[in-house]
Write a structure and sequence with these properties.
Subcellular location: Nucleus
GO cellular component, one term: nucleoplasm
Low-confidence stretches: none
Strand content: 5-15%
Helix content: 40-55%
Strand order of the largest sheet: 1-2
Distance between the termini: 151 Å
Keywords: DNA-binding, Metal-binding, Nucleus, Repeat, Transcription, Transcription regulation, Zinc, Zinc-finger
Shape: elongated
Main location: nucleus
Family: Belongs to the krueppel C2H2-type zinc-finger protein family.
Number of helices: 20
């Protein structure tokens, strides 16, 4: 009777829930489990439940690796008869099922049904957890593994688990180094078809992914997604160690190496290690002297893009980094960082030799030369060496004929343009900065500020070594040379060195016999102002 129904197509057993009809009562019973979510058939190995006995039977072959269905043409074996049926069509090339809309042909009716949904946009398979719809039951099954965290496809080489068979297939190529997808334009090969697809856009210049906010276009969807975070300020990648957030996964991976001290990128020339490949690339240009980043204003070349960016601010005068405390602006972030320490009075950089602390790393570096006696800056004219770059610069100007900036009013000379400009303001009649205490006027605000300390007796600049206080930074700077024994000002005639430029100037008069300080009483002249002062006291004593 049951067999006759295969000929008559009679289906007397109907489901009360969805009205689907069946030829056998047992088939209806099995079908009802889909509605009740009942899974009475459990696997003895992994305890996974199934609504059908046949499904359990098929699943069990995953554990036994049994493949009872063999192809009579090529002897390939399969765990399921449906897989064998599909495989046989690869030999016959038969595709009897055609799409009415686009005429695409398929070897199986189920494939045609799935394909038809690409036209109708029908998604009959819905996830019970998140209500996401799918056009194929297989896609729903794979999606459910995201919720259950189930990874049924395991790599037999490294045991890594995957929720999709296709992902396992792609992963396996990392072991076999197989790259079956080749570019017809440049013969570059790829392990994934999607990677080839993306690569082809480098040839076609196609950028199909556009930003809705700024209309910027990208060749990859992932690049667009990353770009969108610049608008949303979203930083979804968080460091487990310090809580720092990143907009890109690659940046987080690179950041992790700070905590692990991992430096996987090594320089072939000097064997120096780096945590990021980009840092190695930047470093390598030290060896090659390559400077691919060029300034379009002055054509100066740079080995790193960030150095060019910083340099451009010397032309634009842009200062994008403001101090939150005093609103002072800086062109470089490093300069702002160093400046902020002047507010906190924190000196994080300490000398290992004398324990003296400094606000910036650069200042510590300079200070260390007082211990090592290192003089890395050499004059290319006379081979004289200097511990500081600024000392070399000042020295080089002495090789030029005369001094470049001379005051036409008082004949005073200057090595630097900014010093010369500041000096000119002394001769200007306009002195807008007036002291409220004694009415003395000044051409520059910083001179008034310095003068006010003569009234307030304020001495905000302290020596870290002997704690002596000074009213201005220049005086402190001069004083520090007493401790460091540094004497940057050298007499060109007798090579005697001095720690202050004023002392050198006074000394030079012993060679020139110049005596600019004259007594207004007896017209006697002196080379030092101090000597004149002592002489004037003698006249005062004679009067009394």
């Amino acid at each position: 009777m049951q067999h006759l129904r295969t000929h008559t197509k009679e289906k007397p057993f109907a489901c009360d829930i969805c009205n689907k009809a069946f030829a056998k009562n047992s088939h209806l019973k099995t079908h009802l489990y889909m509605h009740t979510k009942e899974k009475p058939f459990a696997c003895d190995v992994c305890n996974k439940g199934f609504s059908q006995k046949s499904a359990l039977k098929r699943h069990f072959r995953m554990h036994t690796k049994e493949k009872p269905f063999a192809c009579i043409i090529c002897n390939k074996t399969f765990s399921q008869s449906s897989n064998l049926k599909t495989h046989l069509l690869t030999h016959t090339k038969e595709k009897p099922f055609a799409c009415d809309i686009c005429n695409k042909v398929f070897s199986l009716n189920s494939h045609l049904t799935s394909h038809s949904r690409t036209h109708t946009k029908e998604k009959p398979f819905t996830c019970d957890i998140c209500n996401k719809g799918f056009s194929k039951n297989l896609h729903l099954k794979m999606h459910l593994w995201l919720h259950t965290k189930e990874k049924p496809f395991a790599c037999n080489l490294c045991n890594k688990g995957f929720s999709r068979k296709s992902d396992l297939k792609v992963h396996f190529r990392t072991h076999t180094k197989e790259k079956p997808f080749a570019c017809n334009n440049c013969n570059k090969v790829f392990s994934q078809k999607s990677n080839l697809k993306t690569h082809l856009r480098t040839h076609s210049k196609e950028k199909p992914f556009a930003c809705d906010i700024c209309n910027k276009v990208y060749s990859r969807k992932s690049h667009l997604m990353t770009h969108l975070r610049t608008h949303t300020n979203e930083k979804p990648f968080i460091c487990d160690e310090c809580g720092k957030r990143f907009s890109r996964k690659g940046n987080l991976v690179a950041h992790y190496r700070i905590h692990s001290n991992e430096k996987p990128f090594s320089c072939d020339v000097c064997k120096k290690d780096f945590s990021q490949k980009s840092h190695l690339d930047d470093h390598f240009r030290i060896h090659t002297n390559e400077r691919p980043f060029s300034c379009n204003v002055c054509n100066k070349g740079f080995s790193q893009k960030k150095h060019l960016k910083s340099h451009l601010r010397t032309h634009t005068k842009e200062k994008p980094y403001p101090c939150d405390v005093c609103n002072k602006m800086f062109s470089h972030k490093s300069n702002l960082k160093a400046h902020l320490l002047t507010h906190t009075l924190v000196k994080p950089y300490a000398c290992d030799i004398c324990c003296k602390a400094f606000i910036s790393k650069m200042n510590l570096k300079r200070h260390l030369r007082t211990h090592t006696k290192e003089k890395p800056y050499e004059c290319n004219i006379c081979s004289k060496t200097f511990s500081h770059k600024c000392s070399l610069k000042t020295h080089l100007l002495r090789h030029t004929k005369g001094n470049p900036y001379a005051c036409e009013i008082c004949s005073k000379v200057f090595f630097y343009e900014d010093s010369f400009k500041s000096h000119l303001k002394i001769h200007m009649e306009d002195k807008p900065y007036v002291c409220e205490i004694c009415n003395k006027d000044f051409s520059q605000q910083h001179n008034l500020k310095r003068h006010l300390r003569t009234h307030t007796k304020e001495k905000p600049h302290a020596c870290d070594i002997c704690y002596k206080l000074f009213s201005d930074g220049c005086s402190l700077k001069r004083h520090l040379r007493i401790h460091s024994k540094e004497k940057p000002y050298v007499c060109d005639i007798c090579k005697k060195a001095f720690c202050q430029i004023e002392t050198l100037k006074t000394h030079l008069r012993t060679h020139t016999k110049e005596k600019p300080y004259a007594c207004h009483i007896c017209s006697k002249t002196y080379c030092r102002q101090f000597s004149l002062k002592l002489h004037l006291r003698r006249h005062e004593n004679q009067k009394s």
